[in-house]
Design goal:
Blueprint lengths: L17 H17 L15 H12 L3 H34 L7 H32 L2 H29 L4
Helix pairs in contact: 1-5, 2-3, 3-4
Length: 172
């Protein structure tokens, strides 16, 4: 459950090639691993501050001062909104758990489950919007560099997986 605020101008598919679309998830995962903590069910304790995340991204793609300020603002706002959604989702989840008993109220369980699904969808949308806003803040060259780094990371992961599989294979 990770997320952001609405971007004022939607992305046009003409701005990004198909290879970019294919690798976007990896590039965004790399970006978010360093830039915006992606929140699944719980935000990790000790997550880097927006300033730290932007500093890490700056090391990767050399941001200008305006980009840094914009990204810190986006991350700060997005994280606050996501934290709010996450807190509400955790409350609804706890409420659902408390309703699991012999004398359950099906309508109440379904209502809470629907709300939890809505919150999960909102967090997913916010995450995608934050990712899009981050990408829109970067220049084409910076996005290309992130894409290159993502491909490099993907290749390293693939190689590590191959090594692990080879180590697990019994000798013949």
């Amino acid at each position: 459950m990770s997320f952001a605020k609405p971007f004022s101008k939607p992305f046009s598919s003409k701005h990004f090639s198909m290879p970019f679309a294919v690798i976007t998830s990896s590039a965004l995962a790399l970006t978010f691993a360093l830039v915006a903590p992606v929140v699944a069910q719980q935000m990790p304790q000790g997550a880097p501050s927006p300033e730290q995340q932007v500093a890490q991204l700056d090391e990767m793609v050399n941001l200008n001062d305006s980009q840094e300020q914009t990204l810190v603002s986006l991350l700060t706002q997005g994280q606050k909104h996501l934290q709010s959604l996450q807190t509400e989702a955790q409350g609804v989840q706890m409420q659902l758990q408390s309703q699991i008993c012999p004398d359950f109220d099906e309508a109440s369980i379904r209502r809470d489950a629907e709300r939890l699904g809505q919150l999960t969808g909102d967090m997913t949308a916010e995450s995608a919007l934050m990712q899009a806003r981050i990408q829109s803040t970067l220049t084409a060259e910076q996005r290309d560099e992130l894409e290159r780094l993502a491909r490099q990371q993907q290749e390293q992961m693939r190689q590590m997986q191959e090594q692990m599989q080879q180590q697990q294979m019994p000798p013949q």
